[in-house]
Recover the amino acids of this structure.
């Protein structure tokens, strides 16, 4: 490639990791909770199993959810409790930080995906770069082929503000998105591998391993979020189209582990193999009961995506379309997901969040391939000085393009179709820290952080005037100027904490 | 089926989920090796911790324990030693905990004379061997246990028929009372027990899909 050195690539990746880490720390500290589900579906069940106290939602009463993700969270909670961290709110915040840290894998995913697409779109540039570097692609001197696409992919996927803020939420969509994105990137890599001959057993093993990993990730993604199941058709299709069908058996083999995990977990917890999946499909897709949680117009997802990236979205789509020869699996997954989820009555933006890394990787790889091809074509006979200038100009253009995407997202990433007021959770955690608390009445229990955020096993239940006279309820939490707060004040409760529109009242001491 | 050649065998791909091609996999760079080794050690420690946590998590039975602060000095005369103001510890096998209907075990000792239907302890439907324990702070001489059953507020058929009350002592389980056919909504059970530290009530749901409901438990002694 000659355009940028390997050392420079590593420096830039390190810088992206550093900025990505800081961005995630900021998001972790400031991002408000969005969906009640991020507490009640994936944290609260684990907390109930550990502490015995909590609120069980209807999904867990009828057994429509798998225990795998709450069990994963629960194991962390259990070991952290054993290590001395007992407060539920702190445990919840650590789990959020954990997912933010895991989301740094999007940087590696963006690098690998962008590089792979760029190499396939500009194979001559890639070969030229390799010829120059020789067999040692780890040379500190020259950048590996596809580096332009890789760097753009790493920067966009790792720093995209919407993905950064979304990554701190303990929703099944987050890990499922990581698994899907990685599976597509590894599929791209498997499609470009060629040295599969009996004479090179090591490479055969590496291809088989890639196939195995693709199957594992796809199955895990679907296990975590069954609505993503149609996406699993695309990587096998891409492998067949790239004449890599022989590796489908390894994909299937890789899928067996997660399939067994989710099936056996359901057998142990709900009493039947894949019982929660059967119930989920029946409820949402066969009986259409998800519509009872709200119906919105079919163009909802398209509108949301445009609102998130009003300037850069058309550019990204056009760029990704230019590289369609290679990026078609990403585009098929992207448009397919939006199209098929748009047919469902109930829609929430988080359901389509995974289209963003797919789009960003596809556009980055295409742009990177185009850049590499241009720089490679013009190298012959050019003076070194002219080459350096060209590289700087194109690098500046690439950085500017990435900045447009990132800034456009940053301007429009702080709004969601659901929001849980953070002040209510702060007030709830404050009550949990009081030594004299014996019970809490909540104005809106479902819009809190659950019993986990309260952090105590004491009763915490919905406000009612009859419970106000029960002496074990020492505190009331409500929004300012609501009936609940007025009734508590009339009953003699006094304000002890106020924060951003929410108030905590305490029963007068006898 | 023939393979379509695209790149040569040295394309910078690795099999794991790292920065294949960008970061040296078999590099001469010591920093790369140190970083890789550090990541592997951290991952190993994390996995070991998580597995230990999983064992702890799976081993929990989902029972609840609540320790109340003491807000009143106990009288010297005979009194309800289980009263919530005296700071007892309440344990229960489970409780009915839907988002808007929480029948917490603390309702067992809240001292309400005319409770609403909400103010009771109810077990979860999956809990086929429900139990509740009330432990007090100092050893007491117990004389009787009074249980306010569901029949006093709800349908008489909701009153639990079969249960056992066990006195808990420092040395373990003490004297007990077995009830096989209770019909009273307010059941008074004589239970003489020296050096008692608490009581445990083990209940049998009235039918295969029934839950148990108790509004109040009083333990009288001095």
């Amino acid at each position: 490639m000659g355009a940028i050195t390997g050392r420079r690539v590593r420096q830039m990746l390190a810088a992206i990791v550093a900025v990505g880490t800081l961005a995630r720390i900021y998001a972790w500290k400031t991002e408000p909770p969005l969906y009640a589900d991020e507490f009640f579906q994936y944290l609260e069940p684990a907390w109930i199993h550990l502490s015995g106290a909590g609120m069980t939602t209807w999904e867990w009463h009828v057994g429509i959810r798998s225990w795998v993700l709450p069990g994963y969270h629960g194991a962390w909670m259990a070991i952290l409790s054993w290590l001395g961290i007992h407060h539920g709110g702190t445990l919840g915040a650590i789990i959020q930080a954990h997912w933010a840290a895991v989301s740094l894998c999007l940087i590696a995913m963006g690098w690998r995906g962008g590089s792979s697409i760029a190499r396939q779109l500009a194979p001559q540039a890639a070969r030229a770069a390799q010829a120059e570097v020789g067999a040692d692609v780890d040379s500190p001197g020259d950048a590996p082929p596809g580096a332009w696409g890789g760097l753009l992919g790493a920067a966009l996927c790792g720093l995209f503000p919407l993905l950064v803020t979304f990554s701190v939420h303990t929703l099944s969509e987050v890990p499922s998105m990581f698994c899907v994105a990685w599976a597509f990137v590894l599929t791209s890599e498997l499609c470009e591998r060629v040295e599969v001959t009996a004479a090179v057993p090591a490479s055969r093993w590496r291809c088989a391993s890639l196939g195995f990993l693709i199957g594992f990730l796809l199955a895990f993604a679907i296990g975590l979020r069954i609505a993503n199941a149609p996406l699993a058709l695309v990587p096998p299709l891409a492998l067949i189209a790239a004449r890599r069908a022989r590796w489908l058996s390894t994909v299937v083999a890789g899928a067996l582990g997660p399939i067994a995990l989710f099936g056996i977990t359901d057998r142990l917890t709900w009493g039947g193999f894949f019982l929660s999946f059967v119930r989920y499909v029946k409820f949402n897709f066969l009986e259409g009961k998800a519509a009872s949680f709200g119906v919105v117009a079919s163009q909802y997802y398209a509108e949301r995506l445009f609102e998130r990236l009003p300037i850069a979205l058309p550019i990204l789509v056009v760029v990704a379309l230019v590289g369609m020869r290679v990026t078609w699996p990403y585009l098929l997954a992207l448009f397919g997901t939006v199209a098929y989820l748009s047919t469902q009555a109930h829609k929430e933006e988080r359901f389509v969040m995974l289209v963003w890394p797919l789009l960003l990787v596809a556009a980055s790889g295409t742009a990177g391939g185009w850049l590499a091809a241009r720089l490679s074509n013009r190298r012959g006979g050019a003076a070194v000085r002219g080459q350096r200038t060209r590289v700087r100009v194109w690098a500046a253009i690439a950085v500017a393009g990435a900045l447009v995407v990132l800034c456009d997202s940053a301007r429009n990433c702080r709004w969601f179709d659901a929001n849980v007021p953070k002040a209510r959770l702060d007030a709830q955690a404050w009550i949990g820290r009081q030594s004299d608390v014996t019970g809490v009445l909540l104005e809106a229990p479902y819009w809190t952080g659950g019993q986990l955020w309260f952090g105590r096993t004491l009763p915490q239940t919905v406000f009612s005037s009859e419970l106000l006279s029960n002496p074990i309820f020492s505190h009331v939490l409500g929004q300012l100027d609501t009936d609940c707060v007025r009734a508590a004040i009339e009953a003699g409760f006094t304000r002890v904490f106020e924060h951003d529109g929410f108030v905590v009242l305490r029963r007068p001491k006898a | 089926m023939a393979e379509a050649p695209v790149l040569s065998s040295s394309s910078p791909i690795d099999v794991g989920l790292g920065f294949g091609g960008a970061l040296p996999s078999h590099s001469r760079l010591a920093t790369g090796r140190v970083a890789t080794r550090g990541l592997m050690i951290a991952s190993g420690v994390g996995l070991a911790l998580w597995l230990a946590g999983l064992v702890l998590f799976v081993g929990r039975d989902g029972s609840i324990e609540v320790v109340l602060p003491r807000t009143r000095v106990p009288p010297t005369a005979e009194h309800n030693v289980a009263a919530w103001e005296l700071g007892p510890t309440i344990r229960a096998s489970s409780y009915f905990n839907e988002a808007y209907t929480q029948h917490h075990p603390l309702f067992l000792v809240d001292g309400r004379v005319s409770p609403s239907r909400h103010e009771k302890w109810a077990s979860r439907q999956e809990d086929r061997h429900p139990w509740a324990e009330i432990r007090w702070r100092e050893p007491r001489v117990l004389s009787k246990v009074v249980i306010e059953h569901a029949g006093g507020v709800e349908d008489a058929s909701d009153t639990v028929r079969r249960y056992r009350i066990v006195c808990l002592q420092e040395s373990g389980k003490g004297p007990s009372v077995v009830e096989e056919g209770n019909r009273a909504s307010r059941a008074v059970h004589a239970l003489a027990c020296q050096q008692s530290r608490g009581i445990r009530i083990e209940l049998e749901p009235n039918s295969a899909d029934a839950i148990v409901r108790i509004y109040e438990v009083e333990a009288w002694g001095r």
